Amino acid sequence: MAFPYMEAVVGFMILMYFFESYLDLRQHAALKRPVLPKTLEGLISQEKFEKSRAYSLDKSHFHFVHEFVTILMDSAILFFGVLPWFWKKSGDFVVLAGLNAENEILHTLAFLAGVMFWSQITDLPFSLYSTFVIEARHGFNKQTVWLFFRDLIKGIFLAIILGPPIVSAIIFIVQKGGPYLAIYLWAFMFILSIVMMTLYPILIAPLFNKFTPLPEGGLREKIEKLAASLKFPLKKLFVVDGSTRSSHSNAYMYGFFKNKRIVLYDTLIQQHTVIPLQHLVSFALNLVSRSFEFQADAFAKKLGYTSSLRAALVKLQEENLSAMNTDPWYSAYHYSHPPLVERLAALDKPDKKSD
């Protein structure tokens, strides 16, 4: 008797859904708390707290609906054998197009194109509701419907341009890899990651946003002075027009070796602010990311920027209406960045003195 692999996969998906739903319920209960955490008392106004609470609860309700519909669709697709049926139909399409269906690369590309089309269609209502109802209701959405669909179309064209050569290369490696398949695949994915990390901010990101050099002034001087004091190889300093899509604030850095760049969202400059197993992999990566975040905060503290960092973190929390109350289990599993309460608590801890 053959092992029921499909039933096992569906069962594991449902088990993970119930586990994550339990964490979601814990977080929802934390979001409903009507009072600020003691760590944030006196730092966050009651008005901002109420706005943050309403925004977080709106997103939480939406998340429950989205996840329930997603698990229903995914389970039905796997349990009723929709993917094998679609694989056969994609082969028929290749033949209809006058191509060779025995060519595994062509067959796979046709299959993935159909899957991409299906996922875009099924997720579109949720994306529209999230952007034009929830984000708009709380004053964050700045997109027009035209801009939303323009970005969607650009993303599809990028997938059409970049997807086939990458998928073709992976299939070729699988066909020819032999006993060293895992090593070849790892090497290819590693090189691809480096290339994409290099090309994305230069060629792809400008298709969606406008990047301009940060003008001369006090902010630029302070950033360049800090970078120089740390021997940080800052080559370029950009402002991105994030306000055309959202009023959320952020900043990030990228680059390799001696060519580092910093990008500030224009909304930030306008304020006072200096397969189922993937869930387990994501959790592990979150743990690593959180550790790095705490290390970065500790480094800023060591440089004497504790008060400035505290003020900046609180300001970002306020302006983005981020959740003030968070469940520790939920945040440990889902958040790549520690919640504000945990970061402030870590900053307030006295430094360990060596004997």
Automatic annotation (TrEMBL):
Biological role stated in the UniProt entry: Proteolytically removes the C-terminal three residues of farnesylated proteins.
Cofactor: Zn(2+)
Enzyme class: hydrolase
Residue positions binding Zn(2+): E293
Residue intervals passing through the bilayer: 6-23, 68-87, 155-175, 181-203
Residues in CAAX prenyl protease 1 N-terminal domain copies: 28-210
Enzyme nomenclature, EC number: 3.4.24.84
Membrane topology summary: Multi-pass membrane protein
Chief location: endoplasmic reticulum
One GO MF term: metal ion binding
Alphabetic keyword roster: Endoplasmic reticulum, Hydrolase, Membrane, Metal-binding, Metalloprotease, Protease, Transmembrane, Transmembrane helix, Zinc
A GO cellular component annotation in the UniProt record: endoplasmic reticulum membrane
GO biological process: CAAX-box protein processing
Family stated for the protein in its record: Belongs to the peptidase M48A family.
Catalytic activity: Hydrolyzes the peptide bond -P2-(S-farnesyl or geranylgeranyl)C-P1'-P2'-P3'-COOH where P1' and P2' are amino acids with aliphatic side chains and P3' is any C-terminal residue
Official protein name in the record: CAAX prenyl protease
Cofactor descriptive note: Binds 1 zinc ion per subunit.
Compartments, as annotated in UniProt: Endoplasmic reticulum membrane
Domain called Peptidase M48: residue spans: 214-272
